[in-house]
Amino acid sequence: MIYIKAFIIGGLICMLCQILLEKTKMMPGRVMVLLVCLGAVLSFIGVYEPFLEFAGAGASVPLLGFGHVLMKGVKEAVDENGFLGIFQGGLKAGALGTSAALIFGYIASLIFNPKSRS
Question: Considering the domain boundaries, does residue 12 fall inside one?
């Protein structure tokens, strides 16, 4: 049941983003930034954590979850370091995911032969 719930919630998030792309003139980059910022705002006001507990991976895998991770890191760093935590927290919290994406992307580029578009 956990997998079905995660699939449905994640699919709904993706469906809403696709509708946003189709019905507006927003470019994909702006939609991605919107998702990260929305995740951070929802985390800040305390709505995202209960949503994450309900939806599981359906809420943590999309870019909304990345915004939540950044805001959670900022909150923890501000509690520990004060004002400087605003600058440290997001970088520290997002470092693992960003590093993994870069490393796995590099490995994939070594394994597969990329072709330029002509």
Answer: yes
Q: pLDDT tens digit string along 24-77? A: 988 989 999 999 999 999 999 999 999 988 988 888 888 888 888 889 888 888
Closest by CA position to 48, among listed 70, 25, 29: 70
- DSSP codes joined into one string, 52-73: HHHHTHHHHSSHHHHHHHHHHH
DSSP states of 79-111: HHHGGGHHHHHHHHHHHHHHHHHHHHHHHHHHH
What is the count of structural domains for the chain? 1
- The tokens 């946003």 sit on which residue? 20
Q: Domain range for residue 106?
A: 2-111
What is the number of alpha carbons within 13 Å of residue 5 lying toward its C-beta? 11
pTM of the predicted model as reported, rounded to 2 decimal places: 0.76
Residue 116 lies in a domain: no
Distances (CA, A) of 86 to 12, 64, 91: 32, 19, 10
